[in-house]
Design goal:
Length: 69
């Protein structure tokens, strides 16, 4: 899960999804083949800087080995 604030457009949401995917893979986890979930938690009249949003992926139960660099 990755939390962020603001009123993101589609491009902004895609950037957050890409950042989350990178973090999940760096942690040695595997993303399940399912679409990401985007959640908004505040009503539309909440100022953008106060809005809470999240993007989420379903991950596999077993971690995958991370290759050494």
């Amino acid at each position: 899960m990755r939390q962020f604030s603001g009123s993101p457009d589609e491009e902004g949401v895609q950037k957050e999804i890409a950042a989350l995917r990178q973090a999940v893979l760096a942690a040695g986890l595997e993303v399940v083949d399912a679409p990401p979930v985007f959640s908004r938690y505040d009503p539309p009249w909440t100022p953008g800087f106060m809005r809470r949003n999240e993007v989420m992926f379903e991950v596999a139960a077993e971690p995958v080995p991370v290759p050494a660099k």
